[in-house]
Write a structure and sequence with these properties.
By secondary structure, the chain is of the alpha+beta class. It is built from 3 helices and 4 strands.
Amino acid sequence: MRNWKLICVSILFLAVASPVFSKEKKPDIIQSAEDAVIVATVVVRNIYGDDALKSQLPLVANLKNRSWVVTGTLHADKGGVVEVWISKSDARVVKYTHGE
């Protein structure tokens, strides 16, 4: 009887715990450069303003390791560009900078 209870509890534990410990790969949230540019556009507009965003269009995204690095375009001899790092897997803004 005791072994039967142990077997039932073990089966129940495995049924409940298997999704928690599953090694299934979740799809990336930011799957394309276009998606990364959309996210970076919102970040740049909210932090640096609409004028700063417009002055650095187009934004260009490149994949570096597991992050999209979105950079602005420099149209003048002086100044800097924005750079926004976005996690490919969870869309988290890892960092943002503006060169001078």
